[in-house]
């Protein structure tokens, strides 16, 4: 199902694949949409996600998608993964200074050497394939940590 904005505004000239838009729905609230019909309420109220949370989700979503194929080769096609992003904006500078990413993977059955390989594979895949991080990092420090890997490393 393809979605397009209503006709309240003329479509910008450069609308194309990957374009997204947000319509104001009230004071400091928006409804973000993509061309596949997905809607995300943006704001600071119940049932809404704020822009900082969207940024963090974009980073971990990209990290997870970028590393998925390579991790599946080592952990199996149906491996569980949970990614977290933590960071609070610095009010004085009105920006995020650091966002810490953490990934949880099934490491229990792996040797220390295998865990080290998974950590390396994850980092390399994200560095090479995560367009979001590659776009953001020149101005924002993004730290990654594979949770549980610390215990397996010498």
Automatic annotation (TrEMBL):
Compositional bias (Basic and acidic residues): 1-11
Gene3D superfamilies assigned to the protein according to its UniProt record, in alphabetical order: 3.30.300.20
Region Disordered, annotated ranges: 1-24
Source superkingdom: Bacteria
Protein name: OsmC-like protein
Protein source organism: Brachybacterium faecium (strain ATCC 43885 / DSM 4810 / JCM 11609 / LMG 19847 / NBRC 14762 / NCIMB 9860 / 6-10)
């Amino acid at each position: 199902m393809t979605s397009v904005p209503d006709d309240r505004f003329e479509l910008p000239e450069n609308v194309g694949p990957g374009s997204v838009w947000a319509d104001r729905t009230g004071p400091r609230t928006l409804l973000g949409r993509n061309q596949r019909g997905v809607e995300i309420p943006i704001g600071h109220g119940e049932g809404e996600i704020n822009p900082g949370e969207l940024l963090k989700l974009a980073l971990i979503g990209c990290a997870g998608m970028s590393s998925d194929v390579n991790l599946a080769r080592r952990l199996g096609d149906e491996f569980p993964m949970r990614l977290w992003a933590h960071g609070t904006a610095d009010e004085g500078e009105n920006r995020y200074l650091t966002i810490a990413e953490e990934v949880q993977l099934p490491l229990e059955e792996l040797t220390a050497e295998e865990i080290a390989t998974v950590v390396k594979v994850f980092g390399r895949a994200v560095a090479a394939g995560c367009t979001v991080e590659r776009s953001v990092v020149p101005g924002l420090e993004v730290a990654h940590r594979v949770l549980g890997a610390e215990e397996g490393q010498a």
